[in-house]
Every structure is written in C-alpha cells, then in structure tokens.
Amino acid sequence: MARREIQVKRMLQYFVDATVQLIEEEGIEKVSARKIGERAGYTSSTIYNYFDELSHLIYFASMRFVKEYLQELPEYLERGQTYVEKYILSWECFCKHSFEKPQIYHALYIADLGKKADEMVNHYFSIYSSDLIGFTDEIKPMLYNPDLTSRSKALLELAKREQDIDDQTIEEVNEMSVLIWEGMMTTVLNKRRDMDPGQAAEKTMKYIRNLMKAMEQGAS
C-alpha cells in the first residue's frame, strides 16, 4: 500500500473515531463538523478534504453501531425453516435493533447522502475490511447492499423455489414491508406517538406478518 493511501486511511479513521465518540457521548443529532474537528485535533475544514459532506462521515461512524445487528442476524436466519420464515425473521432482527437506535438506522437507510449509498459502503469496507471477518457468504451480500428494498427482496426471491409466488407479488409485498418500517421509523423519530423501541418493533412486525400471510394465502 502506498504511503499516501496509508495516510489518507489514517486520517479517515481519526475523523470516524472522533465522530463515534461524539455520538456515544452526545447523540448523533448533536454532532457537528466543529466538534469532530476539535475531538480529532484538526480544523473542521480539514474534514472536507476527506469527506464530501458531513453526512458521509456520520454514515461511516453509524456503521460502527450496527455490529450487534449484523452479528445477530445469522442466528435469526438459522431459525427459519423456509425462506418466507427467514424473511420475517430478518425483519424481526432488523426492527429490534433499528428501533433501539433510530437515529443511527435513519442515517444509514433513510437520510439523503448526496451520492450513491453503494459507493459509501464499498469505501467503508475498503477501510474497515476487518468488519467482514466471521460473516457467512449468505450475510456478506447484505452487508454490501445499502438499499433496504433490494436487501430484503433477495430472501423473497429465494422463496419462489418453495411456493408459487410471482415476481410482481414479491415486488409489491417487499416494497410495502419497507414502507411500513420507514413510516414507523419516521413516526418514532418525530415523536408522534409514545412508543418504546419494543412496541415500535412489535407493531411493525404485526403488519409485516399480516402482509406475508396474505401473500401465502394468495399463492396457495
């Protein structure tokens, strides 16, 4: 690795580490370029030599807070006997963790990044390649796919091997699942309802399970 590349990676890590610390101490909503710069020991303007936007740095830092979800996801998938069950279980795991850390998951899956999210993910893992250690080939494609719709759709596509489900149904059911989660996430973040993380996850999963029941009934 060239010396310049090593220096760039080191600087990126300085800023990401500083952002992670600020998120842990003050919350993601209070992170600013000035605070990050001060914590990392550089001026805030230096950040923009390495990140196009502050949201990109927050995205990188947020990736450090989803390890528990990614580590637990294989355990959830193993409990499923069919791909439809695995699909539901994958949402259970995602809802459990996302509503416990709504700001983090909003930053990763909803917030406007100003560029393609897949570029961000590839860049992240080029720096933090060790984060991939221990994950199976079934999980790794999900790590590299930042688009929630296509990530979850992959499991339903496999369900076609087990029952007669047409492509349009898969597309629509999966999109509705994502929209249900996004709607509940927005509601939680805007504090429109008084719900704790467990209640938000339970209500979201109720609607997703109902969707899946309707899909299976239509296929039978």
Automatic annotation (TrEMBL):
The protein's UniProt keywords, in alphabetical order, are: DNA-binding
Judging by the UniProt lineage, the source's domain of life is Bacteria
Task: Name the InterPro entries on file.
Answer: Homeodomain-like_sf (IPR009057), HTH_TetR (IPR001647)
Q: Which PROSITE patterns match?
A: HTH_TETR_2 (PS50977)
- Record lineage: Bacteria, Bacillati, Bacillota, Bacilli, Bacillales
Q: Which residues bind DNA?
A: 32-51
| Gene3D superfamilies hit by this protein | Tetracycline Repressor, domain 2
Q: What is this protein called?
A: TetR/AcrR family transcriptional regulator
- Which positions fall inside the HTH tetR-type domain? 9-69
